[in-house]
Amino acid sequence: MIERRPFAELGGADHGWLKAKHHFSFAEYHDSERVHHGALRVWNDDEIAAGTGFPPHGHANMEIITYVREGAISHQDNQGNSGRTEAGDVQVMSAGSGIRHAEYNREATPTKIFQIWIMPNEQGGEPSWGAKPFPKAERSGSFAVLASGFDSDVDALKIRADARVLGVTLKAGQTAEYTLGADRRAYFVPAAGEVEADGIRIGTRDGAAVQNQETLKLTALTDAEVILVDVA
Predict the structure, then answer these.
(1) Mean pLDDT of the chain
(2) 190: helix, strand or coil
């Protein structure tokens, strides 16, 4: 079963420096039917104005994955980690027992990101942060694992959850398949372009909640880039 969640119908907020759309309940937006999807708790579609960002604040017991769609995001935390993650690349923060961090757009143009929160397998643990480039050419036509809680995904950033974050780029007319398993859930969003799944058209920045489906098959209606989360 696939449920389309149109971008235009998502909750959100406009803070001036931050324009946000929420696929799930977040901050002052609450939808009792969209609190989480399995272990997936948050999927925010954020646009951060040039020279602004999130000042230092804390998190605990959450796996926080940032996929940069346009621009770049600069990270700094109280564990001594810092870095700049560019468009197409991924950063992961395991909040563990507690971490304070700041995320800024130090670029001259707006930065656009997907921020994804996944509930960890266990509470606590040492906080950590990491980032890695994932060239789009290397995920052309088939799903590539960007972040994973499975040891077999050796090239992915590590998260402490029974989950994967994947990406694929498709030319118009191309198809990609992902074996999900009927006992798992998925959520995917085209960062660009449009795809079709089970006869359902999923447009740019629409969400699609998947469950009770052994295999997910996406066909690109236009050139497309899709981010997918596979969770228990």
Answers:
(1) 97
(2) strand
